[in-house]
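Teaching assistant here, posting this on the class forum so everyone can see the example we discussed in section. The complex has two components, and the goal was to see what a joint structure prediction looks like when all of them are supplied at once.
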Amino acid sequence: MISVRLEPENKDVCVERAKTVTQLLHALGRKPGRALVIRAGQLLTPDLNLRPDDHIIVRDVGSRG
Amino acid sequence: MKCTRCSDQAVVALPSHHAAFCAPCYLVFARRLVERAIKEHAMLTPEDRVLVAISGGKDSLALAWMLKELGYDVSGLHIDVGIPESSPIARGYAERFCTTQAIPLHILDLQSQGLAMCEVKKRVKRPICSVCGQTKRYFFNTFTLNNGYSVVATGHNLDDETSRLMANVMRWDTAYLSDQGPVMPAEKGFAKKIKPLFRMTEFETANLCFIAGIDYGHAPCPYSAKASFPVYKRLLADLEDIQPGRKIHFYDAFLQRGRQGFASAETTDQAVDPCVHCGYPTSTGECGVCRLRTMMKE
């Protein structure tokens, strides 16, 4: 179970069965290139593997006015 | 995924550039994008005094940071538009950033001008985003000219520019298509305006902020829900997923081959004269901001 903080709405969700950053973004309805994916203060590229106990920040980059 | 430049572990993947970068190499990449934009369009000289329009969001902070990194004489102007839900937050980010980076920051409070947008919104019939944008352009322009700055720089990025271009194309708005671009020269009482981030996407400026340690605000304006540009941004982002690089090609080709066609077709040479009240250039005798001031006093 990967715990995810969604920003900027600051909402916490859990995601099961996401082995890579790409799969995580897909599970969250997001796409690479539209959100930063951050683990332990480091940016992650879409190909990287995730661990079940990861704490991830997914920060949407689209400005909304 | 390995860094394209040094083969270290990459932290940013950019399909549109067929590249990936580690953090240090990403800063080099971003710097080169901005340097290229400045050089290709003769945006700045070392002698320029640059006023950066600082909203407190990622693009304006990334722009101020990068221009300072490049050695330019940079100051900021933050316009507090007077929206209780979002303005204090944005102002706080702008102030903290400029303090940390030792960038002089001017604050212009629209409430002190009788033009707080929360009050203006109750009175105007036009879309508030249009009124707010017009008002900010007025104050950025007048502040630039009245305080010895040679150019005003804004953080418009590639997504801003391509979504605006697409909106203009969808309306075949020849007037806007004839003068859209990353540089507006100083003329007819208007200050020179530049957009040095026009080659960078929102994703790229967000990555730049993260890697450079820039803390930015992302509280959306509560009035922006009906803005049309986000619709075009989403459409173009979907296209970019299928055809990486399409956005910059669309915009570059417009600048190289499209814009001049609209410029020659746009024959309207509307007279622009100083506003009868404030001297701001206008084609209607009294400028939009003076009309707004009058309306708010009634």
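For the discussion questions: The longest strand of chain B covers residues 73-80. DSSP finds eleven helices and ten strands in chain B. Think about how each of these relates to the inputs above.
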